[in-house]
Inverse folding.
């Protein structure tokens, strides 16, 4: 059968001259984030403004990968699973709140 | 696909050319080398001494390989050529072309061989909609190869072309000189390699690194694929060839999403829909479960990975929602299209749970059901939290992306598919009936899995309670009293969209129909307004928008019919199910075993043969899967615990049907079916045809049960 959704993601996020490193361990739904240099199954390289945009829900990770703004090496399934934790556009959430409020009234 | 075009493919890489093997694309012309929804080659023209070639024949060796036999000379008069040319082309990560020139003369020759090459790097969406490019092109000659490049901001795509024989490259192609002895042969290997740029570098396909030639990834596995599938034996020969065609086409339709580590799921259609679709991949996985259960496993895992996790109006994404379509081209990259992925389907999420349960029932693979517990729960939660747009307890849809989202988010997705009897079109949101059936089935099946695998009694009880409540309300609110069938939908005011449609068959399949209503529903399905003699029309004759060649308003869809046959069996209408199987399989024989997406809804006695509806893709996955599901329904295969129940009812004309080595939780098992009446000395007919005594019109009025076998 297919491999389990478990593995180590490494994020290398460049910010001008410096590069910040984060390690994300996925284990069957659990997520552990640290600065450790674990051996990674998937290496993700991008820059700080884009990464912050993705985390805040202003940018979409998959589209950024297709544009070549985010480099992914190794087991891309791990990135697909991890990107689920990022927020969606704030505007979409507001619209939903309005829609639900309108429906029940 | 246009006349005279030749296509070969491997996964989502495919080549469409003319019968000479040449590619001469324009922005609107769909020829070229495509990969990941991008055209990597739009011009590839071969000349010898400045002249184009004439095709003698095309030999489709495999779905990933073809051979063109050509001669020089133009004009209509056949010239006794002193040369002949063979282009043997195979798709891999790009393509490989072996170009051979044979000199039939007793004198040596020297020929200038020229290949013009170019790429427009068009997105598939641009090819469909004829849109202009925004980036820059750059062609360069480097290290004995030609590199065609395209860039827009950080987005980069390139095609590199190389030759084994010495060649002179320039920015528009390559030139070779072939010196051939009398009766000699000259050959060169041409490689066309696609590359995707990431952060200033390019990822080069694996074979390139190892110095291997471009070649298909799936060649070796086709034989194994056919060998591993169950075998069909029957005295009705066309069934065997239709079955084989289906298996080969299903192999061609396999697509390994980049995240799935080489495992495949069924893509929707070839070549333009070689990507992951929630609905199509799930339906095809359901159809093929008794034959190739691994497709279902990959479908469940891949769609589970991409399950929606947030609200995103542009992508019509909600938490728990299963995707509709995934694309990888430039317009998706720059968010000019929402397919990264796009979630605008109202049925895929419901069907996801149905497939997970059906998969467990066949394979006994509880580990996968445990691994996907979170995804299944999120899908079930989506039904009530996000899909009940009108707050009336029914699943409905209305797109939030009003620019590039889909209006109709059910399988009948054309603009006029959902209509009242009088032809009027309802507003949004729309709660189509089959969605309620799928939601019911998802809850019932989810409850079974909760009890059996997730060990959560309270959750199972809750789901069952909700399902029962939905069924009760549905049978009250959707039932069209005077016609004795279920309305196509409820509109935004809760009013019945009262056209009679094939969707009633999906309701039988889902189990949402009250037992006492089932007989009337089956009678409507098999009645003359819906049943054409070949199959059940999408919309009944006599409805305002009925049109026998209207996409979802009168044509017969083989996929639709295969699920209707399953539904008829579920409620005990075995003869009627066999009748549908007979009609669709007869039609398949007319199409050389490859069922189209849809064919005309004309009455069978009127046209005598099924009239194909013109579509862009062939084969289509769920049409390919239809004969498989019909085999299942004819044999009455149903997993019960660790056993496979076999309850065959065959159409007239099939005396014997055997399905051998059916894989499942029982290991491998054989199923045998015999026609109920044996007529000594009678040969099986070429066509299964209509049994005299089942012209449903008359019989139904007498209230007698239709019979298929004599």
């Amino acid at each position: 059968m297919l491999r389990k959704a478990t593995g180590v993601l490494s994020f290398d996020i460049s910010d001008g001259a410096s590069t910040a490193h984060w390690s994300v361990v996925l284990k069957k739904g659990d997520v552990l984030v640290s600065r450790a240099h674990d051996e990674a199954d998937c290496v993700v390289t991008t820059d700080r403004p884009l990464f912050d945009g993705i985390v805040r829900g202003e940018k979409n990770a998959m589209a950024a990968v297709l544009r070549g703004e985010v480099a992914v090496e190794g087991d891309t399934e791990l990135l697909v699973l991890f990107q689920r934790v990022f927020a969606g556009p704030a505007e979409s959430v507001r619209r939903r709140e309005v829609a639900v409020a309108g429906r029940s009234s | 696909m246009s006349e005279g075009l030749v296509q070969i493919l491997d996964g989502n890489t495919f080549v469409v050319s003319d019968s000479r093997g040449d590619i001469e694309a324009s922005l609107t012309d769909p020829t070229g080398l495509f990969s990941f929804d991008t055209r990597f080659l739009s011009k590839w023209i071969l000349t010898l001494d400045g002249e184009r070639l004439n095709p003698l024949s095309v030999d489709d060796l495999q779905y990933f390989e073809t051979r063109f036999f050509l001669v020089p000379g133009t004009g209509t008069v056949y010239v006794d050529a002193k040369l002949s040319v063979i282009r043997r082309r195979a798709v891999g990560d790009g393509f490989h072309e072996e170009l051979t020139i044979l000199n039939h003369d007793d004198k040596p020759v020297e020929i200038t061989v020229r290949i013009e090459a170019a790429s427009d790097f068009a997105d598939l969406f641009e090819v469909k909609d004829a849109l202009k490019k925004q980036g820059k092109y750059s062609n360069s000659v480097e290290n004995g190869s030609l590199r065609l490049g395209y860039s827009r901001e950080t987005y980069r795509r390139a095609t590199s072309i190389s030759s084994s024989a010495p060649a002179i490259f320039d920015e528009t192609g390559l030139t070779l000189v072939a010196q051939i002895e009398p009766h000699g042969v000259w050959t060169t290997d041409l490689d066309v390699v696609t590359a995707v740029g990431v952060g200033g570098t390019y990822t080069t396909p694996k074979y390139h690194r190892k110095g291997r030639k471009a070649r298909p990834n799936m060649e070796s596995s086709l034989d194994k694929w056919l060998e591993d599938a169950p075998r069909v034996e029957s005295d009705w020969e066309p069934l065997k060839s239709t079955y084989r065609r289906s298996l080969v086409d299903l192999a061609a339709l396999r697509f390994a999403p980049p995240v799935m580590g080489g495992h495949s799921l069924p893509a929707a259609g070839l070549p333009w829909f070689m990507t992951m679709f929630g609905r199509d991949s799930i339906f095809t996985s359901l159809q093929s479960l008794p034959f190739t259960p691994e497709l279902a496993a990959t479908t469940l895992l891949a769609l589970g990975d991409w399950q929606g996790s947030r609200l995103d109006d542009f992508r019509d994404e909600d938490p728990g929602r299963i995707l509709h379509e995934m694309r990888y081209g430039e317009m998706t990259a720059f968010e000019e299209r929402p397919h990264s992925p796009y979630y605008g389907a109202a049925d895929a999420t419901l069907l996801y749970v149905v497939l997970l349960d059906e998969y467990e029932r066949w394979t006994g693979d509880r580990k996968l059901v445990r691994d996907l517990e979170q995804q299944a729960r999120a899908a079930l939660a989506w039904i009530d939290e996000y899909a009940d747009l009108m707050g009336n307890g029914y699943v409905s849809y209305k797109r939030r992306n009003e620019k590039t989202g889909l209006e109709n988010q059910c399988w009948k997705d054309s603009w006029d598919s959902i209509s009242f009897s009088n032809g009027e079109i309802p507003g949004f949101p729309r709660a189509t009936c089959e969605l309620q059936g799928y939601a019911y089935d998802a809850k019932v099946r989810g409850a079974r899995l909760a009890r059996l695998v997730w060990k959560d009694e309270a959750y199972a009880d809750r789901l069952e309670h909700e399902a029962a409540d939905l069924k009760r309300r549905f049978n009250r609110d959707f039932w069209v009293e005077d016609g004795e069938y279920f309305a196509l939908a409820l509109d935004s005011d809760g009013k019945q969209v009262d056209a009679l449609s094939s969707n009633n068959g999906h309701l039988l399949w889902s189990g949402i129909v009250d037992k006492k209503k089932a007989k009337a529903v089956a009678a409507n399905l098999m009645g003359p307004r819906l049943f054409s003699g070949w199959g059940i029309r999408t919309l009944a004759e006599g409805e305002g928008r009925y049109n026998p060649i209207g996409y979802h308003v009168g044509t017969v869809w083989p996929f639709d019919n295969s699920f209707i046959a399953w539904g008829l069996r579920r409620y005990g209408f075995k003869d009627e199910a066999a009748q549908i199987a007979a009609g669709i399989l007869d039609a398949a024989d007319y199409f050389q075993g490859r069922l189209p997406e849809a064919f005309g809804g004309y009455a069978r006695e009127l046209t005598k043969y099924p009239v194909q509806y013109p579509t862009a893709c062939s084969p289509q996955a769920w049409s390919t899967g239809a004969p498989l599901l019909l085999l299942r329904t004819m044999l009455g295969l149903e997993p019960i615990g660790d056993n496979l129940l076999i309850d065959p009812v065959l159409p007239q004309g099939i005396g014997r049907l055997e399905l051998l080595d059916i894989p499942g939780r029982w290991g491998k098992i054989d199923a045998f079916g015999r026609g109920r009446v044996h007529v000594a000395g009678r040969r099986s007919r070429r066509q299964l045809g209509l049994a005299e005594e089942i012209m449903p019109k008359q019989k139904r009025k007498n209230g007698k049960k239709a019979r298929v076998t004599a």
